[in-house]
Amino acid sequence: MNMTLSTMEPDDVSSGTNSHCVEITPVEAQKVAQPPHRSTLQKLKTRLKETFFPDDPFRQFKGQTFNSKWILAAQYIFPILQWGPNYSFRLFKSDIISGLTIASLAIPQGISYAKLASLPPIVGLYSSFVPPLVYAVLGSSRDLAVGPVSIASLVLGSMLRQEVSPSHDPVLYLQLAFTSTFFAGVLQASLGLLRLGFIIDFLSKATLIGFMAGAAIIVSLQQLKGLLGITHFTKQMSLVPVVSSVFHRSDEWSWQTILMGVCFLTFLLLARYISMRKPKLYWISAGAPLASVILSTILVFAFKGQRHGISIIGKLQEGLNPPSWNMLRFHGTHLGLVIKTGFVTAILSLTEGIAVGRTFAALRNYQVDGNKEMMAIGIMNIIGSATSCYVTTGAFSRSAVNHNAGAKTAVSNIVMAVTVMVTLLFLMPLFQYTPNVVLAAIIITAVVGLIDIPAAYNIWKIDKFDFIVLLSAFFGVVFISVQEGLAIAIGISIFKILLQVTRPKTVILGNIPGTDIYRNVDHYKEALSIPGFLVFGIEAPINFTNTTYLKERTLRWIEEFQEDKVGKKKSSIKFLILDLSGVSSIDTTGVSLFKDLKKALENRGIQLVLVNPVGELMEKLQRSEEARDLMAHGTLYLTIGEAVAGLSSTLKAQSSSPV
Amino acid sequence: MNMTLSTMEPDDVSSGTNSHCVEITPVEAQKVAQPPHRSTLQKLKTRLKETFFPDDPFRQFKGQTFNSKWILAAQYIFPILQWGPNYSFRLFKSDIISGLTIASLAIPQGISYAKLASLPPIVGLYSSFVPPLVYAVLGSSRDLAVGPVSIASLVLGSMLRQEVSPSHDPVLYLQLAFTSTFFAGVLQASLGLLRLGFIIDFLSKATLIGFMAGAAIIVSLQQLKGLLGITHFTKQMSLVPVVSSVFHRSDEWSWQTILMGVCFLTFLLLARYISMRKPKLYWISAGAPLASVILSTILVFAFKGQRHGISIIGKLQEGLNPPSWNMLRFHGTHLGLVIKTGFVTAILSLTEGIAVGRTFAALRNYQVDGNKEMMAIGIMNIIGSATSCYVTTGAFSRSAVNHNAGAKTAVSNIVMAVTVMVTLLFLMPLFQYTPNVVLAAIIITAVVGLIDIPAAYNIWKIDKFDFIVLLSAFFGVVFISVQEGLAIAIGISIFKILLQVTRPKTVILGNIPGTDIYRNVDHYKEALSIPGFLVFGIEAPINFTNTTYLKERTLRWIEEFQEDKVGKKKSSIKFLILDLSGVSSIDTTGVSLFKDLKKALENRGIQLVLVNPVGELMEKLQRSEEARDLMAHGTLYLTIGEAVAGLSSTLKAQSSSPV
């Protein structure tokens, strides 16, 4: 060992080679291990598992008896069986408090969001009764509070109104809303069942922040109708028609409505601000909407506000959810629209529900299985569509209140549902005089939280391209339409990824003096290139989209490299060392890169040397007849250091006898 | 230096650390260099250059005087100015021989391919006259022989026939064909001008092989009409209707036609076989089509074949290409179809033209600029559409003959064009008695070469997934339709890439004993994991599509790793070392991975350690407030070896005082 080192010359590049602490023969040094043989079926199995079961949900079943497998399976499908038996009065005390708190939020929000979707207010309450009960049985999150949400309500309404007017044809509109909910549920449950949950990952953070901010603006603008008391309002959603409608209808503005709206909006925003500053005072913002509804209803009732131009909800039907499976329409001209609406709302509500579930699971350190949650949310919506509910999911604001109020299990959802049930059965007449302006104020307060400027600034700081995605989502939603804005942003995000794949990163590596480490010369100023060698790293999978580029780029690197040292003779590079450590996969088009490159380099008098082709790459190169000779002795090394060391002697022999 | 080594214990992991040949303090070892600061604009410039100018076509202009820049620019646009001044009689001798050879192939192929596109035969000859002249001026390949090709002809015909019948409305059909050609040209030229040439890279080798084989089958089946002498033939393209049509019309089979067809087909295939075995005899397969046409025409004329049920071409118009710009239709009901047809044929013909150009450029060791070639082919088609030509490109069979016949420059294209011109002016009446069955035989012989079974077998051997893509292209074309088969195959290919991005490879690394090298433990059996550490490598860009997966997968690796060693206590892992060398880029969603992971690991009592974050990654982590504390002292190392060495001491101190 010491012998090797003592014969070293200080500037000899080969001396730094990794394995030189151990005496090795050149043949040993070049040994790149073969990946263990696996059949196509095995590989397919691994790949399918990685794609669809990355979280390996069945691991817990391994090594269990038949009976306990049954119990585990039942617990897997119905998480209530898991925590139910251990449920205690102590837990119930926490759950009843949090359940009542979220109910006080759920009732005004339910009515408001239903109006956002142009549905009768009572549908919002129906949707806060059945779905939470279903989720309590099927869901695995302990913090999620279920109900209608603003984004899905907005999108459902704006898409359905394209074809059907809720005021002219309310029954058809309601049918389409329930059918959309049904399709949304079927899609959600299928995504979960088919383990395709990763589809929601295609909504990047930047897309979501831009989209939500845009949606918040659009929703708030829509509320100007209620806030100003305008009766003839545009049906369009985007900025320009809404603003022009507001100012064209200034004769319809009602000062009584505006005064009431401004007061309650200030109160609600203040309550929100206080709770944000002091999370312990969560009950202020949680209770404010209900307080506003009660107070405003009393005011209107006392002063006969409806006679002074303040519009009120009006008479509401009493009673629990009527069945609605006979209202599902699977035929007719609107089927396409209904499926599309179901699809978009399904993805959006899943995104919110799963993100909320994961956030609180991380806070309390338990796991949420995304795909299983999708099935729970999907089944909840399917059942909902048959019981007069529209699209529901885990709502962010409501879940945050639930968490802060100390919810321990899904029982808080049951408490909320029971409270809503009592309201539906006995308290509906009380809402008759609730003014619409208060609902508008509640909606605005809820959506203002969707505008996340610090997060947007953070994205601007980190990645300018992501910020462009954010802006395109935002402006797309504000100026074109909610669904098109979303589509544009997703399209740009995917295009960016494809572009990244098409133009993978390639780096020139240099030796860090005194070590055996090779690093990017652009990044490490001290990294030096070794005369006669060009060390070149590819840091991406090689496939059909980038094979041509990689070949052209490699040849250009060589030319640039030789031009840099214009003093030296043109043939200064003798070896191109290709570090393949970063190439995680390759396809058949990619395999031809090496053959083509070898040929092109030979014409230039340069030898191609490969370093560290990993697993799949090694395997495929060997299976290809054309590339196999590249794996011959002297052209394949385990590390760059070994390659440089092994080839330096060849180079020296060459340079001593000038050609 | 020797001191360090002499104090080493043989089994001490830290002893193998890379930089230990040089004495270094721990602080030095942990130094990961900052990437040099570059402004957003600089980065954008680099990215745009890599995306659109990877071949750096303007490099030659650097450091030139103003005048020579002008000359270089003119030579860049019109390559004829580059080789023209040096053109010699010796080169011309070679070019005239190859030009005449390809003309003898171009004339029968032109007529045949025009029939394949359901166009009048003479349009095929027109298309072999003007486009070669344009290409001779603009093109940079010396071997490309230009003219109509089978695939583009097939697709053009099959797409246009969807809406317009060439027999019922021949003028409209012709107008649509020219307009499609115009759009194809505009698209091709724009792709070149906008440097978007990489779009054709999205047609992978597997897709192309499957598609071409399928198209060859479809084309050959269509020729059964001519080969069997059937007059009432289906207009559909896919396998089932064609075969059923052949057998339902067995009463129309003409034995004279069949006999003639079989004879000439045998002759042509034999000629092709001979030339393939002995490339020097290229002239046999090059001359065979013309010989067949002449021989069969004489036979029909002598025996009055047309009276015995042998269908003939019939009277052809004499004269050069009439102008056709007045036939371009930019309005009306068929505009969508025409644009779509133009788009598909543009991409297909570009793919063939560029691939042929690159193949022969590589053989003769000169460079072809893909984007410039696209502009040349595009302008050729725009001019063609105004002079009664349909889509043309560099044809593979014809270029191979051109190359084998010794073509030196694009002058061989001019010679071919002049020969075709002479034919158009004086020899057209001679083709009156040419039987259609011979054209069918010529087409079949040409397309048989598109079925590349060895290449398909090679793909099967190397990559099973690519083979699935190949099969789906093949069966899609054969059983559904030409364009849908192509679309399906491209869709699957892109889906595969997205899936790869969504599910990037992660590997557990182990130390190769006696060295400082860390390698995949699945791949290198001798690689050992180090107690207390889990060394984990991510080999892909981290972005919004895979952040969730990577987090879940990492946590699963930890659980699996701890379960393997079930004998040891649960807390056997103290450090998770994340090797980020393979992470070439990251986006804002990806940045949150590290923060989330750190939190999740802390709950498990594991410390997260990062190794070698490169350029962009390092930069973005530092710009993100949340992730910045990850870069603190003791959690960031340059190599895995250094990290293990640095942390082992911490671990030993911990384990000596059991918790």
Keyword list:
homodimer, 659 residues, mainly alpha, 6-stranded mixed sheet, two-stranded antiparallel ribbon, 27 helices, 8 strands, elongated, disordered N terminus, SLC26A/SulP_dom (chains A, B), transmembrane (chains A, B), transport (chains A, B), transmembrane helix (chains A, B)
Description:
The structure is a homodimer of 659-residue chains. Chain A is mostly helical. In chain A, 59% of the residues lie in helices and 5% in strands. Chain A has helices spanning 2-6, 26-29, 40-52, 66-77, 80-83, 89-116, 121-126, 130-138, 150-160, 170-193, 205-228, 239-248, 255-277, 282-303, 335-364, 370-385, 396-404, 411-427, 436-448, 453-462, 464-480, 482-502, 547-564, 588-603, 615-623, 625-628, 640-656, and strands at residues 146-147, 393-394, 506-511, 518-520, 533-538, 575-579, 607-611, 636-637. Chain A has a 6-stranded mixed β-sheet with strand order 4-3-5-6-7-8. In chain A, strands 1-2 form a two-stranded antiparallel ribbon. In chain A, helix 9 packs antiparallel against helix 15, helix 15 packs parallel to helix 17 and helix 21 runs antiparallel to helix 22. The longest helix of chain A is centred in the middle third of the chain and has 30 residues, at 335-364. Chain A is elongated and about 105 Å long. Chain A starts with a helix and ends with a helix. At the A-B interface, helix 1, helix 3, helix 11, helix 20 and helix 21 of A face helix 1, helix 3, helix 11, helix 20 and helix 21 of B.
